[in-house]
Amino acid sequence: MGFLSQLSIMPLLFVAMVFCQHEDYDFEDEYDPEPDEQPSLFHINPSVDYEVSHFSGPLRCAKECFCLTAFPLSMYCDHRKLKMIPAIPIHIQQLYLQYNNIEAVSSQSFANVTILREINLSHNKINSYMIDYGVFAKLGNLVQLHLQHNELEEFPFPLPNSLEQLLLGFNKISRLPANALQGLVNVTMLDLCNNNLDDSDFKGKQLSNMKNLMQINLCNNRLQNMPPDLPSSLMYLSLENNSISYIPENYFNKLPNITALRLSNNNLQEVPYKVFNLSNLVELNLGHNKLKQTFYIPRSLQHLYIEDNDIEIVNITLMCPFIDPVNTNQLTYIRMDQNKLTAPISTYAFFCFPHIRIIYYGEQKGTVSQSTQLRTPVFQRFLTPDEYEEARNEHEVEYEHEEDVVEREEDYIYLH
Description:
Layout lengths: L1 H7 L1 H7 L49 E3 L2 E6 L17 E3 L21 E3 L23 E3 L18 E3 L21 E3 L23 E3 L18 E3 L21 E3 L20 E3 L17 E3 L10 H4 L13 E3 L12 H5 L5 E3 L7 H6 L11 H16 L16
Parallel strand pairs: 2-3, 3-4, 4-5, 5-6, 6-7, 7-8, 8-9, 9-10, 10-11, 11-12, 12-13, 13-14
Antiparallel strand pairs: 1-2
């Protein structure tokens, strides 16, 4: 009876113990190429069914690991200096083996396990040639597979079509076979950051068949072009630290759900004027490129990062062609340090972007006096209806004389 009582309060325990078992890529922060090692914690995945199946006899635990009474389906074997995968009891659903010295994954390791839903083998020494063929494909209930921070040289094909999250970042993968992603129709998150993939690995519409894919991380690879044929379900796209120099004008036409887009540390010199005209885009990171001018800002965008480029003048008229007091621009933050600005942007920016709170100028590329003048962040309040009307009148004058926008003293906010 005591055991059943424990099971009945499991959902409450999961809510109370909000821990994290793995290092997913967080779009709220920059992708860290060398993250500090974190101690293992517990992660409760909402996609995993945590009901306890009925097994006869006591629930066992491998002697090399530990199991908690409150979490009878999980076995924790992390940070144990293990060189082999220990014996896995038949009832285990979540297996945590990160931060060990495991080099091989054999079929025998999972021979008697049929209900595994999560395996974390990150931060080990696993080589592609030491993974038995089809070892993961036999796990028909597997939802999460963590293999980041290993020594994989090839994509671990084949995989079960039950997978929803696949993390393969920080490996040495240089080849993506044509059928590697075939059948992975349930994957919502694919992390391939920090590998050796190039444009040739994404030919043949491999990604277009992943109809439920919401996030793909391809940062720190060898891409020179935007990956083709991404599924329309995609919401988060990470392409930092590649060699991309061009974005096709209609590239995002079939990606209406894009919410966060990261293209920092590439070779972009210019982008098509309205290429980011996406109704759901909230975060856009184009820092550390070679851009010389700004572009159209969609009304949904909240955070814009364009630091470390070659922008000399911020043309607000290009960013915001007209003001709509009913459907206002949502931009709240702009980071534009390490450009070539010689003066703050026009005050018209605060009429066009009434929600803006911070414009971070930092230090600019140029003389000491120029960088000092723009160092202080800008804070701005919401606009009143009268100010909207004033903005419309001012905009008509600025639109006719765009070349004078950055020359008139009254259009600047000089910070002290």
